[in-house]
Amino acid sequence: xxxxxxxxxxxxxxxxxxxxxxxxxxxxxxxxxxxxxxxxxxxxxxxxxxxxxxxxxxxxxxxxxxxxxxxxxxxxxxxxxxxxxxxxxxxxxxxxxxxxxxxxxxxxxxxxxxxxxxxxxxxxxxxxxxxxxxxxxxxxxxxxxxxxxxxxxxxxxxxxxxxxxxxxxxxxxxxxxxxxxxxxxxxxxxxxxxxxxxxxxxxxxxxxxxxxxxxxxxxxxxxxxxxxxxxxxxxxxxxxxxxxxxxxxxxxxxxxxxxxxxxxxxxxxxxxxxxxxxxxx
Amino acid sequence: xxxxxxxxxxxxxxxxxxxxxxxxxxxxxxxxxxxxxxxxxxxxxxxxxxxxxxxxxxxxxxxxxxxxxxxxxxxxxxxxxxxxxxxxxxxxxxxxxxxxxxxxxxxxxxxxxxxxxxxxxxxxxxxxxxxxxxxxxxxxxxxxxxxxxxxxxxxxxxxxxxxxxxxxxxxxxxxxxxxxxxxxxxxxxxxxxxxxxxxxxxxxxxxxxxxxxxxxxxxxxxxxxxxxxxxxxxxxxxxxxxxxxxxxxxxxxxxxxxxxxxxxxxxxxxxxxxxxxxxxx
Lengths: 281, 281
Prior knowledge:
Two copies of one chain form a homodimer. The first copy, chain A, is an alpha/beta fold.
């Protein structure tokens, strides 16, 4: 068996094409969509990600303002800026980039992002509405997990899914989206006893912990689908995932590559949310 | 083996005693705590539950206003009343009783309950904050699950817990509270394939579906702890749980009885939340 690579490129391109059409319509009607990305870090992989969003936005006809507050910005300054952008009628989507200075938690500050502009589902109200089955923008990464599985026709209803990682931005919202699709969902984390035993019962394993190569052949049953959400920087300036692709190659049925799997879909969904937010106004 | 009964009475009494003390202090300082329960149903088991809350509130020094809008109330009228109570300075806790008329969903209407008065965690903002690890009142039933396990010294960290039921009021918030306690949590539901296989891997099974006797000896490993959240009315006017106690007796290690397990703890926690909300003002 060789694990089939589940590339995100084709799906991302389709989402971006549809989004670009809608962005063009908005622009013609005098409402050009705009995304504001608030940055308060000099973290390199964060900067790389923000640049990639800005580039993709530009190609899609969405203005992307990068609001760089610098790595020494305090929580009050960040919250004030989020409030300001939330009140700015020309801005339709607001994204607060992590990491944040002084160990501030995203979910603490993101309450200051207006619900309607919370295009990356960081405001706890978005998470709560998502969990309650009410309309909300899901975090783009969590939504990308389900979108890429759908794209490849991987059934979720009645299947067992192990989500490894319980972050507020990925693991928890992904669990809710998967539950909503009628999967039986287990959330594993750093305190899970005998992780491999737990994940080996799953048809689909979602790796979202930020530990390079954590998920190996020992962690999955033969033929399982692995969705790798990890984006860990490598010494040579590249990215590597949470899954050990070499180890999984002979055991998993399918695997999303890093880079080139979940990542491009995430960016495309973020843009789609921005256009949806601009349309809803 | 005989499953040890995990009664809620002692824990509920302790919570209520502490809550009564705090209620008395509030009353002396001119801020007598008040809970408003909005009812829009003539469902009998609902009426029974509301009466039991009112009685317990009275015994604890909390005023309980039952606001009965009748089974024909429409969503607008309910929302308007929830807004009114949220704006009323003499009311500290607001509870919207289910079932709701016309198939309205609790989470839709409960957004109208002010976050600070949302003593049963029904507003999606409360659920989102709970999921994000931020302060919020959890739904009392979900919190009671963890409280009763704690009371009996049942370890959760690193243990496997199966939550059967994915409701917004119990299953999902309970899953978050259990995750927060470092359990590895699986959420099962009506679409779960081979439920017994899934639940049999768990150290603790939380039954929260509303199907009498669903969880039997076949569903648990020997010695497992079963927390029964079910409150299904019986023909003779009593209550029965989601667990089949007779079947489990020889296999489970411990079981919360229905009635007398989770129920009394739920009511006590609701009163504690009301006093906390009154104190926070």
